[in-house]
Amino acid sequence: MIRAALLATVAFVGLTAAAMWWPDEPAQDPVAVISERRSNDEAPAPPALPAMPTATPGPSAPAPPSRPHAASAPVPDVTVPRVRPQAVDALRQARQHGDPRTPPVARREPRQAPPPEILDDPERYRLYEQGEKMAVYASFVDASKRRIAELESLVAQGEREGLPPEQLAEGRRKLEALKGRREALLERFPDLAPPQ
Questions:
Q1: How many CB atoms lie within 10 A of CB 171?
Q2: What angle do the packed helices 165-188 and 122-161 form, to 10 degrees?
Q3: How far apart are CA 183 and CA 196, in angstroms?
């Protein structure tokens, strides 16, 4: 995390420095130079290099004119999005107290270790593990029945209140996926079906 922040800072400083030293206008129009070269049959002579300056005693030469800083350049109009006060309050409340839509954390009792006589026999241990797995499946079938009823009422309420179609589609997709998992589990293990 620190490396990423340091890398981002170095990149920002480098780009800022490059923007300050970048020339405002090109010396010549590149298109004109290219078309001029194409019109001449012979290659242009290389430009003559200026003579090397020599140090002379006396007053120093005036400093070159300073370039305008990026801050003095006109800033284009930027539209800042307006945020509703209710959205700000909701975000503040969610950050401090959590999102009310988040499901509660389900607490489970710690798993009891099997007795030593089951641990010593591989076949008995396999049956013990199968029983533990079936208990988890039965718990899912029971909880999914309640959750399906909750999701159906939430989707119906969302339709009545005019929720956006994306949210309704998401709710329907979750509802159908939960129903599909429950039905697949009941087809695979019909003994898990609740008595009717």
A1: 19
A2: 150
A3: 16
Please tell me the distance from the alpha carbon of residue 146 to that of residue 134, in angstroms, as a whole number: 19
Contacts 24+ apart (CB under 8 A), 176-179: 178/144, 178/147, 178/148, 178/151, 179/148
pLDDT value at residue 51: 60
Residue 133: which of 116, 111, 104 has the closest Cα? 111
Cα 107 from Cα 105, distance rounded (Å): 6
Tokens of 139: 């718990």
Whether the CB-CB separation of 182 and 141 falls below 8 Å is answered with: yes
The predicted-structure confidence for 44-54, as pLDDT tens digits, reads as follows 555 566 665 55
- CA angle in degrees (0–180, nearest 5) for 54-60-62: 110
**First-last CA distance in the chain:** 56
How many helices (H) does the chain have, and how many strands (E)?
Answer: 6, 0
Angle at the Cα of 145 (from 152 to 112), degrees rounded to 5? 140
pTM above threshold 0.85: no
CB 178 within 8 A of CB 148: yes
Length of the chain: 196
The C-alpha torsion from 164 through 168 and 170 to 173, rounded to 10°, is -160
